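Students often ask why we bother predicting the structure of a whole assembly rather than each chain alone. The short answer is interfaces. A chain on its own may look different once its partners are present, and contacts between molecules only exist in the joint model. In this exercise we take two input lines together and write out one structure for the complete complex. Read the inputs first and try to guess which parts will touch.
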Amino acid sequence: MDSQDNTLQQRKKGFRAWLQDFIAEIPLIGWLLGILGAVLVEYFLGDLISYYLGLPKIPVLFGFLTVLKKPLLIPGTAGYLILVYGLPILIIVKSLQKPANKLAGFLDKQRVTVAALFHLGIFYGALHFWADMSDYRLLVIKLTMIAIMLTLSINVINGYMGEFSCSHPGFMALGAYATSTITLLLFADDKQFGAALLPEALGLYFFPLALVAGGIVAALGALVIAIPSFRTRGDYLAIISLAFLFIVKSVIENLEFMGGPRGMSSQPHYSTLPMVFTVMVLCIWIINNFVRSTMGKALNAVRDNELAAEAMTVNTRKTKIITFMFGAFWAGVAGGLFAHVLRYVNPGSFGIQRLAEILAMVYFGGLNSVTGSIVGAVSINILSEALRPLEIYKWIIIPLLLILVMLFRPTGLIAFTEFKPKELMKPKQIRVEEK
Amino acid sequence: MALLRVDNMTHYFGGLRAVHNYSLVLEPGHIVGLIGPNGAGKTTIFNLISGIHTPTEGNIELAGQNLIGHQPHEIGAMGLGRTFQNLLLWRHMTVLEHVKMACYSQLGYGIWGAFFGSRRCHREEKRLTAKAMHLMETFDVDRFSSQLAVSLPYGAQRRVEMARAMATNPKVLFLDEPTAGMTPDELNRMITIIRKIHKEFDVAIFMIEHRLKFVMELCERIQTLVFGEVIAEGTPAEIKNNPDVIEAYLGKEDIG
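Now the answer. The structure tokens for the assembled complex follow.
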């Protein structure tokens, strides 16, 4: 009797409430399975469906590119999106609701790492098949994941610690060049460094070490900025770090053995999807661990009131320097991956425009928030790819969006939240009745 | 042996002499008050002892250790906890995070433990949470534990700040105007709380306070500071009747 009343009430609330309830009952694992299912549908039936809908080929990036170029294909693309993504996800999610919740309940009792790995495995599977369908997708995914790392690492400095650092592209460049130098020197036959010193087969295993080396070089660069600028407070860091960015760029431009302005090319093909994915997950995991610990919360204390932090026994100077190096380290690692994704790197790609992109992603997504960084990086990246056919107008739409976000949510879309993997993976209650 | 001893401390801000020949002896378990008109240099004395400024001359010792030249965070870890006149709370942090943060020097894990979420790190976090909960109960702010500290009522914010100061495990607690802006009700509550922590945690307390009623009731000894110099020191009764103090506060008595 009670539940009948409730369903009646729910109907009255309309579609939105129904959707909310629907979403509230699906655990994360259910969604991931749904996405995997949809991707598999596309993988096996995509060509067929797009053929019958009159599309020239499967819409690569959710149809944005097709639609913006040929508006006549809008109905076909919409149909494709519904048939390939919408319906399969809904059907799978709904039909697997109970088993997915059971599975989530089971995983909830395991250690967080085990549960997280399980989720990530499914997610990676979906990404893998999705990216397998076109090289363009693969590239976009890799660059997006690198952008997530960059955004997250600058968020640690600009968001969590509240300093304004502008040298992230510089750190990225340091990492990219250091990693490239190592891999080119050791594992590749190329113009700059000649024949490979070690057998090429070892390269892929050494690559993580090369990335770490790139990160360490970037962190040392950060130390150079940190020592003078953290003696003072205020805008000095912004100015010094901006100067550092230009210094790094012009030094690299003038180093002939690193290719000068022409850059370095023919890096080995080491930034594979699993590699980038694993490094990104590690980056998120480590940064999230750090910012959630009391040691990492010291960053917030330093930002909100340094004097109080110091009086409460926080070593503010050490905290600031270590955090700055930590952020730079991940920027360096991201740079190393970036160089091996494009398999080409030149000083021009680490200029002020890259800085603007990174800052846009952080402030769009939200300060002081891991989720925000991920959302910001993904949405700005995908958006700028999707709007590519608009050419120059793209640079009107994206800044406009940023301005709107700044107006309505000055700290970004999802700011000042904690990213709790355990909560995220929890099984959802199937609500029979609500209060 | 005195717990905190300040000898002939003098400090200049440029050409301005803010503190002159200041001395203090604080015995374990004592409560000493520092009163004086606005701008007398009371907070400067707090800042000098807690290491925010370095005195131009003089010597400071806490439990036999020399404090001159140490960073404020080191002095904090040596056992000097303090609150601030204008409530320096952290804007985006919850009450629990505030109290845990003050345990920074007692963290039993290093930076790598924090990065990789080591088992030790989790255990330590749990231990500190328990400690913080206990402190928050003592100061009656435990029900706010997951709220942002700045969103609390004023009196509760003061108590959070005191809980935070106590979390540093102080031997000496400095209170900078603990009753500023409080209603009489809150004032009485503060007296009870200070008595309670004095008894429970066995700390010596050194406080700046404007409300004479409050100081007279709590302190065993009172110093009166005018223009950076101590003009009178003694028991509350002595201070109350000291003509110099009355003059500093009310002006000269006209016996014409």
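Check your guess against this: DSSP finds 19 helices and two strands in chain A.
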